[in-house]
Amino acid sequence: MSAELDTRPRKRSVTVAGHRTSISLEPAVWDALFALARAQGRPVNAVIAEIDAARTGPLSSAVRVWVLHRLRERAGI
């Protein structure tokens, strides 16, 4: 099964505000997050820390919404 069709979340460890935590996201979301961070010239942990500081709900949901917003901006929708 290709990564873009694989909807099984994958857990990864990240460092947020000096603390290790894990986030479960679908492979396509991880791929997009890494690509967007790379396009900004920033480490993924820094992007996740920024998302974490602004979130009001679960971190994994906040990351998904952040990725969606950035991709929509790029697509002009």
Describe this structure in words.
GO terms for molecular function: DNA binding. It is a single chain. This protein has 77 residues and is an alpha+beta fold. It has one domain. It has three helices and two strands. A two-stranded antiparallel sheet has the order 1-2. Strand 1 and strand 2 form a beta hairpin. The longest helix is centred in the last third of the chain and has 17 residues, at 59-75.
List descriptors:
single chain, two-stranded antiparallel ribbon, 77 residues, DNA binding, 2 strands, RHH_dom, alpha+beta, DNA-binding
Rg of Cα set: 12 Å
Number of helices: 3
Largest sheet: 2 strands, antiparallel
Please tally the β strands and state the result. Answer: 2
General shape: globular
Unreliable parts = none
* N-to-C order of helices and strands: EEHHH
Show the helix and strand layout.
Layout (H helix, E strand, L loop, with lengths): L9 E7 L2 E7 L1 H14 L3 H11 L4 H17 L2
Antiparallel strand pairs: 1-2
Helix pairs in contact: 1-3
Outline:
Residues 9-70 form the Ribbon-helix-helix domain. The chain is of the alpha+beta class and 77 residues long.
